[in-house]
Amino acid sequence: MFPPHTPVGRIGEKALLRRIRSRIKGARGVLVGIGDDAAAVETGAVSLITTDSLVEGIHFRRGFGPDALIGRKALSVNLSDIDAMGGAARYATVSLCLPSEALLAFVDGLYDGLLERARETGVQIVGGNLSRTPDAIVVDVALLGQADTLVRRSGARPGQVALVTGSLGAAGMGVRLMEEGVGRDGARVEDERERRCIAAQLDPAPPVGFGLAAARAGLAHAAIDVSDGLSGDLLNVCQESGVAAWLDAGALPIDDAVKSLAQERGGDALDLALHGGEDYQLLLAAPPEAVPGLRDLAARSKVALTAIGGFQEGEPALRLRTGAGDAALVPRSHEHFGSG
Known about the structure:
The chain is an alpha+beta fold.
């Protein structure tokens, strides 16, 4: 057994794979797990497949929290995609790209978080890949789910209501705090508001299961997870559905910690709610008569749900309603290779 401070380059790929494999047990539906050329699993009639990569320096920074949170986030961002389609996540593969000097302690911590999040959500890790990288760590998760009723981005219609789960802006504020060095190198964060926002960034908590329940009840006609920013993700729904949309600025469920910190530090809470990204909440489109049922479902699921606007006829575009009137809203969202 190698001690945790051993660099992965010293033990080699096969020993590292054996170490990871020893932590992952078989489960119902897994015919072949880690150790063969491919995993073999049982799935339903409709399978959902998604993948997301976390790249060091872009999606995460080490030193702002336990390594386990990186593993939790790597799975959570994929869980959010499956739920937005009205599905249940079942199997995951994890591809891990590491520099040779990365320590076993990091890999162990990462898998602590991955396996913890998997247990919480009924997901079985069934395989993956190990590779060397010259510098930055990359954690790539592919997630397989199944669905009875699909909910797509293309189902919004004029007259329907736009709703969002949870609160908005905390993850975006968390990024700003981390860029200022708050919580770096394990430093204790005394301010509860700051802790809340940094936690929203490091360990997102999508309302897993709510999208599935809304789909099975036939209440949601379109959905998308709010990952790149509310404004950009809402425009995606408009473009796929061929409709326009409006938002009520006063109705947006901006996180209380964000409003307080923005007022104190001179930031713009509304801007973070609209464009901050990485909230990993669900944005839904539903006919007005389905809204009471969605509210009941949300209450039973202990999920906050807020009506924030609606859809109307027109070319895909957004408008924002404020106390000063109604104006065009230019979306801004995360875009890897250019402006949003």
